[in-house]
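Researcher: We're teaching a course module on how sequence relates to structure. For the next exercise, students receive a sequence and then see the predicted structure as tokens, so they can try to spot secondary structure elements on their own. Here is the exercise chain.
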Amino acid sequence: MIEPSDIMEYGVAGFAVGCIVGVCKWFLGALDKKDSLIGDIVTKHEDQREKESERHDKSFNRLSDAINDLTKEIARKK
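Model: And here is the predicted structure for the students to work with:
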């Protein structure tokens, strides 16, 4: 790693390169955090979509059963 004595040896150019390296590491760390946050959001969204799909299927099945029951009742009365 860069030590203060190395910076003094290379002067302003060494300091500038050190700063650039530090900013790049900071930026890459921020990108990693952003990627993990996006991954969490996507996972939550997928879970929510699965739950909504299950609810939709259950509602559709209940509605289909109710329609079938009503159709049978109407057929019996005739």
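Model: If you want an answer key for the exercise: The mean pLDDT is 87. Residues 65 and 71 are 10 Å apart (CA to CA).
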